[in-house]
Amino acid sequence: MMSGNDVWETVRDYPKVTDIGWGTKIPGYGKLHNWTKRSIFWDLPYWKDNLLRHNLDVMHIEKNFFDNVFNTVMNVAGKTKDNEKARNDLANLCVRGDLEMQPLPNGKWAKPKAKYSFTSEEAKLVCQWIKELKMPDGYASNLSRCADVTKGKMKGMKSHDCHIFMECLLPIAFRSLPTEIWKPLTELSCFFKDLCCNTLKLEDLVRMEQNIPIIICKLERIFPPGFFDSMEHIPIHLPNEAILGGPVQYRWMYPFER
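== DUF4218 domain-containing protein ==
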């Protein structure tokens, strides 16, 4: 990982966007470097010595990660990451023949059922469970309003709803999945739950920083490559940010958006 001085030595001679305008690329972009400009924050004399220059918002990261996991496991049409394009990537990027698109006699292609996704009936059972779920007063919003039992999906979930589901309900809702799939998802749930504690211990954060890459690697063995984008990578940096910046309650967006 580059230090602040290393980054400063790299970008100090690059122009700011106010100097070159929007859309103008610095010579060597894409070959020698990937910098598009020098941020105006580098004009601050202390910026290169600032250990936490850009704070990652745990609220939106957790929500986006949850949406990807939940919609993929529940096999929500139009929102699942396990679509036809993702399955086509398997033939080029992975050796997982059981998940590759299969040709049909009529010339069309079929998408085999994956172990990590529910059938329509299983998804409806999860929604029915959420519909009947009772939470302590003031602990969470009325999640039953989000459950659409007839279609087997959730709708209208707010960031805090995703927060509660990811950290408390996900291991229970997905318990019917095979153990080799359920366990990494539970570890992911525990990671966010530990990260969002009011009190954080340094030794716990060091352990979490060591464990989260392993959890992501386990998920890579489960879901197709199309499931993973920058949002699935960002949690790797969250424990280190907590070490530098303290508990996430002082840095996330809930106080400003709720």
